[in-house]
């Protein structure tokens, strides 16, 4: 004869009580309920009793139990039907369900598992086995509750992150407006010539900037720059550089110097870029660098003097449609102390135009992965030969989107278009 330890001799399940507070015993036999309840109470659990499945469901609605011990065979509603109804109830936490049965057929056991039972105990119930099954259930409930708490924390964190991202998005939208405001004049007519500018960031903000400053009635300075990287830090750097090449505050513009008569004149572009390189390396503690093309334009004669610091080669489109790429490269600004830069010039005649653009144009990748490059830009300019001023730059963006297969570009796109107006034939 096997030895069964009396219920009164079982130790308290203090660890399980931390997870399982309320236990519901469901059995149509009052004696069986009392036997199970006496043991469970001694182990420290709060015990509720029900004599039928219907009564058990009412109790579950009012005081959801952590663990259910239910007889399989009961009149009215079987333990299996009660288990199925129990699983359909809305609960905050998972409830562990143990069926008490004399059945041992595997098909019946599988049927019970399908109905939602977690475990089985064969009647008559062995107290040692009951204790072990409750301990197993407690471990599962503990894991479930830990997972629920972790999910709650994850959801709470996600909600906080969503709120943070919404705030950042709003801030970045404002930053985008501010950065776009750095290009105040998108189009300006100087009589003999017109200047149009384009600035389109790949994200909310970017590292490209184009600008213009007037030196005299017939002289203007043009520049296009591209700070390394993307995002907020690059955008902040463009704002700083815009101050160094300001048209609104000529006394702060490093490209200008004050003459004895109080007027301003432009330093040679190569000298200005060298000064910016020294200034950048000495005053700004940053890992960034930038490319730059600076042009001194004489509107009266059409003479343009430029210096290039790693920026793409500017394109000159002659009145007959032929496109030339100018320049010799040069080192980016902010890499090497004492870097020197070379100047080059071009004469623009009536009907000619000059485009200063960032590498977001020439390095735009097509649907096949091939870059547009200088040759591709020349082809686009030829197609847009009859499209003037700002409309040409807008059409250029459309052409780039068509080439890339998307209007979401991987890099910032910026450009300046200087057009010398065609001569008006005399009568």
TrEMBL record:
It comes from the Bacteria. Residues 22-138 form the Response regulatory domain. One of its GO terms (molecular function) is phosphatase activity. The modification 4-aspartylphosphate is found at residue 71. Keywords: Hydrolase, Phosphoprotein. Pfam families: Response_reg, SpoIIE. PROSITE patterns: RESPONSE_REGULATORY. InterPro entries: Bact_Sigma-Reg (IPR052016), CheY-like_superfamily (IPR011006), PPM-type-like_dom_sf (IPR036457), PPM-type_phosphatase-like_dom (IPR001932), Sig_transdc_resp-reg_receiver (IPR001789). Signal peptide: none annotated. GO terms for biological process: phosphorelay signal transduction system. This is Sigma-B regulation protein RsbU (Phosphoserine phosphatase). It comes from Roseovarius nanhaiticus.
């Amino acid at each position: 004869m096997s030895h069964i330890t009396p219920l009164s001799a079982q130790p308290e399940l203090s660890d399980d009580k931390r997870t399982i507070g309320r236990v519901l015993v469901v059995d149509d036999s009052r004696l069986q309920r009392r036997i199970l309840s006496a043991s469970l109470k001694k182990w420290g659990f709060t015990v509720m009793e029900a004599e039928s499945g219907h009564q058990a469901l009412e109790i579950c609605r009012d005081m959801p139990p952590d663990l259910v011990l239910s007889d399989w065979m009961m009149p009215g509603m079987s333990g299996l039907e009660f288990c199925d109804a129990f699983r359909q109830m809305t609960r905050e936490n998972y409830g562990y369900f143990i069926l008490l049965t004399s059945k041992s057929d595997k098909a019946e056991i599988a049927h019970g598992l399908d109905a939602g039972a977690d475990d089985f105990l064969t009647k008559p119930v062995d107290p040692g086995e009951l204790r072990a099954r409750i301990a197993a259930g407690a471990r599962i409930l503990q894991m479930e509750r830990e997972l629920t708490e972790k999910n709650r924390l994850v959801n709470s964190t996600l909600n906080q992150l969503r709120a943070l991202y919404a705030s950042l998005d709003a801030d970045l939208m404002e930053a985008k407006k501010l950065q776009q405001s750095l290009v105040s004049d998108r189009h300006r007519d100087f009589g003999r010539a017109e200047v149009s500018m384009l600035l389109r960031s790949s994200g909310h903000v970017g590292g490209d900037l184009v600008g213009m400053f007037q030196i005299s009635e017939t002289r203007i300075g043009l520049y296009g720059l591209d700070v390394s990287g993307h995002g907020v830090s690059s955008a902040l750097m463009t704002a700083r550089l815009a101050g160094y090449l300001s048209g609104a505050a000529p006394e702060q513009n490093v490209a200008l110097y004050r003459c004895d008569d109080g007027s301003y004149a432009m330093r040679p572009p190569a000298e200005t870029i060298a000064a910016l390189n020294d200034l950048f390396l000495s005053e700004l503690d940053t890992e960034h660098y930038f490319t730059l093309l600076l042009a001194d334009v004489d509107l009266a004669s059409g003479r343009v003097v430029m210096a290039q610091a790693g920026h793409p080669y500017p394109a000159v489109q002659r009145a007959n449609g032929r496109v030339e790429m100018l320049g010799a490269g040069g080192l980016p600004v902010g890499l090497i102390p004492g870097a020197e830069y070379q100047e080059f010039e071009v004469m623009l005649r009536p009907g000619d135009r000059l485009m200063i653009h960032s590498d977001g144009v020439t390095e735009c990748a097509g649907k096949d992965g091939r870059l547009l490059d200088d040759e591709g830009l020349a082809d686009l300019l030829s197609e847009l030969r009859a499209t003037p001023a700002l409309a040409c730059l807008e059409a250029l963006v459309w052409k780039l989107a068509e080439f890339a297969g998307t209007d979401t570009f991987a890099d910032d796109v910026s450009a300046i278009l200087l057009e010398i107006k065609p001569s008006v034939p005399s009568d």
